[in-house]
Amino acid sequence: MNRWKYAIAALWMCWLLVVSDREMAIAKNPPQSPSDPRQWTEISEDKQIDLDFAYATTTNFVKIKLYPCARCFLRNDVAIAVRLASQQLQQQGYGGLRLFDCYRPQPLQQQMWNIKPDERYVANPRKGSDHNRGTAVDLTILDLHGKPLDLGTPFDEFSPKAHHNYQQLSPQVLKNRSLLKKTMASVGFRHIDTEWWHYAWNGNKPPIGKWVWDCPK
């Protein structure tokens, strides 16, 4: 009986080593394209959507360039909903949406966690985030001149002032936050309490993605 226990334990350890080696290989050399491109939509800058990806620069809280270039990928139904939200805002006299972040490869989540290991603001990479699934967006509203509305703090300010329940703000800032929240909720997104810019899709959660996009040459 003991020999069987030792044999099973040895097989279990071997399996763990194989999984660990595979995960490390993926983290070092993540795939460069999704396993099924039909499930993804790329949102490019156009008359409806503006992109401003701090993670494709060194001007972010990690202080390094995380993304090889600024490209926004989302699951198909999520992308449709984001475009619909931008169209609604334009119909109300605004310039539409500016996106700060879309799909985020899971291997890059660890680098964020190393700097900010606080689940109020950065998802634990062991669990993965909605960004890793292509079902979350970080965004703001633009006016007709392409200038962001005042939402009270910059993107990625990790303080109570960025929380939805923070009320020590001007009436206009509170109105702008309410507008963003209502617009995103109307097309199927939910907010998180600690970040006014982050919205996650209410639909099913697809698998976590590890692939990293190629950049135009």
How would you concisely characterize the structure shown here?
This protein has 217 residues and is α+β, with helices and mostly antiparallel strands.
Query: Helical element count?
Result: 5
**Approximately how much helix is present in the residues?**
25-40%
Task: Tally the beta strands.
Answer: 7
| Rg over alpha carbons | 20 Å
Given the C-alpha coordinates, what overall shape results? globular
Question: Strand count, sense and closure of the main sheet?
Answer: 5 strands, mixed
Along the chain, the helix and strand elements come as HEEEHEHHEHEE
Mean pLDDT: 89
**Strand portion:** 15-25%
Which parts are unreliable, with pLDDT below 50 for 5 consecutive residues or more? 14-27
End-to-end distance: 61 Å
Content-based structural category: alpha+beta
- Provide the spatial order of strands within the biggest beta sheet: 2-4-5-7-6
List keywords for this structure.
single chain; about 220 residues; alpha+beta; 5-stranded mixed sheet; two-stranded antiparallel sheet; 7 strands; about 35% helix; globular
Report what the structure shows.
This protein is α+β, with helices and mostly antiparallel strands and 217 residues long. The chain is 34% helix and 16% strand. It is built from 5 helices and 7 strands, in the order αβββαβααβαββ. It has helices at residues 2-28, 76-91, 106-115, 130-133, 171-186; strands at residues 40-43, 49-51, 72-75, 96-101, 136-142, 189-192, 195-201. The strands form 2 sheets. A 5-stranded mixed sheet has the order 2-4-5-7-6. The model is unreliable at 14-27 (pLDDT under 50).
